[in-house]
Design a protein that fits this description.
By secondary structure, the protein is an alpha/beta fold. It has a domain at 2-180 and 232-262 and 300-314: Rossmann fold, CATH 3.40.50.720. The protein is 40% helix and 17% strand. The chain has eleven helices and 13 strands. It has helices at 11-22, 39-48, 62-71, 86-91, 93-113, 147-165, 199-207, 235-248, 268-279, 303-309, 317-330; strands at residues 2-6, 26-31, 53-56, 76-79, 118-124, 170-176, 178-180, 214-217, 229-230, 232-234, 255-260, 266-267, 285-288. It has a seven-stranded parallel β-sheet with strand order 3-2-1-4-5-6-11, sandwiched between helices. A two-stranded parallel ribbon has the order 7-10. A two-stranded parallel ribbon has the order 8-13. It is globular, with a radius of gyration of 19 Å. It starts with a strand and ends in a 7-residue tail after the last helix. Bound molecules: uridine-diphosphate-N-acetylglucosamine. Residues 84, 86, 124, 126, 178, 197-199, 202, 214-217, 228, 230, 268, 291, 293-294 line the site of uridine-diphosphate-N-acetylglucosamine (UD1).
Length: 337
């Protein structure tokens, strides 16, 4: 298939590009480098042996999108491009509605003009809000707890409405749990700007000496060791989930939502212990108060992805850590400018 990846140089987009090429597909990447670097393109060429077909375009730029879709033909798009920081979304909601929601609408309009009616959308387990009905199934009630989560839910609903209005549309919203890990080459990985908001990149920056100590946000949760539990999934498993989802669009599935997780919950302390053991590096920690908006535990019911897509996450926690550590130790300051 010929596939457009918006946000193609981002963390999940870049790993998905590798997985799609490995599976024999052709990819065109689009990104505005608002949260990624051009060096990703060189690294992708080194991994795949192929120069990337790339357009520097902001997904809200209708003229830019039209140019890409006029110059290329596509069977489907995978839409990753969107801002994703919860705290920033609370401070700057309009940025999130313009880029997260407006970017999705602009992309869908451009696709419609070119009769490309197949899309895989990057959604998030954040749409389950604070639900403690574990494991989380796709038919669990959704709940908005911040503007970022609202953009994800709104885009899911837009896709559902679109399919309702025009049955030619096939749209699969993938609800990601907590992506971690990196390509085993150590050439691409997660490179957050500024202070990492998420646990695994924070741990790896402590491990490499960029930060002195990991703050554990609460050890008084109702979990076995008191720290928060999440469903960490290797980014290459997640990437392969996108390959399965985009290939599944060919069977005309209409609109659907599917969790991408492992189905296993890991606590903050368990993740820190695994990192120290696998990387062989001490991670100093200090327990501080809970982070506002965090729930105690979240993990997926991953059975729908297995049933519908024939996909299951297969990489272990140790592989996630080993691959993060290889990426971080080979690139202590992330990608070069
Ligand atoms: C966070 C977002 C979620 C978003 C996801 C995207 C919040 C409240 N939630 O999810 O909406 O979809 O990122 O990747 O921001 N932790 C620490 N110390 C740290 C960082 C995290 O103890 O420095 C703990 C958290 O309390 C949590 C776990 O580690 O228990 C995982 O945190 P994180 O990686 O931020 O993921 P989520 O909170 O699941």
């Amino acid at each position: 298939m010929k596939i457009l990846l918006t946000g193609g140089t981002g963390y999940i987009g870049s790993h998905t590009a590798v997985a799609l090429i490995d599976a024999g597909h052709q990819v065109t990447l689009l990104d505005d480098f608002s949260n990624s670097k051009a060096a990703v393109l060189d690294r992708l060429r080194d991994i795949t042996g192929t120069a990337m077909d790339f357009f520097e375009v902001d997904v809200t730029d209708e003229v830019g999108l039209e140019k890409v879709l006029s110059e290329r033909t596509f069977d489907a798009a995978i839409h990753f491009a969107a801002p994703k920081a919860v705290g920033e979304s609370i401070e700057r909601p309009l940025l999130y509605f313009k880029n997260g929601v407006g970017g999705t609408v602009a992309l869908l309009q451009a696709m419609e003009r070119h009769s490309i009616c197949n899309i895989v959308y990057s959604s998030s387990a954040t749409v389950y809000g604070m639900s403690d009905d574990l494991p989380l199934r796709e038919d669990a009630p959704t709940e908005v707890i911040n503007p970022y989560g609202r953009t994800k839910l709104m885009c899911e609903e837009i896709l559902q409405d679109l399919h309702q209005a025009d049955g030619r549309w096939n749209a699969t919203a993938l609800r990601y749990f907590n992506p971690v890990g990196a390509h085993p080459s150590g050439l691409i990985g997660e490179d957050p700007q500024g202070v990492p908001a998420n646990l695994m990149p924070f741990i790896s920056q402590v491990a490499v000496g960029r930060r002195p100590v990991l703050q554990i946000f609460g050890d008084d949760y109702p979990t076995p060791d008191g720290t928060g539990i999440r469903d960490y999934i290797h980014v290459l498993d997640l990437a392969e989930g996108h390959v399965a989802a985009v290939e599944h669009l060919a069977s005309d599935p209409g609109y659907d939502v599917i969790n991408l997780g492992t189905g296993n919950g890991i606590s903050v302390r368990e993740l820190v212990d695994a990192f120290e053991r696998v990387a062989g590096v001490p991670i100093p920690t200090e327990v501080v108060g809970r982070r506002p908006g965090d729930g105690p535990a979240s993990w997926a019911d991953a059975s729908k992805a297995a049933d519908v897509l024939g996909w299951t996450a297969r990489r272990s926690l140790d592989e996630m850590v080993a691959d993060v550590w290889r990426w971080q130790s080979q690139n202590p300051d992330g990608y070069p400018d």
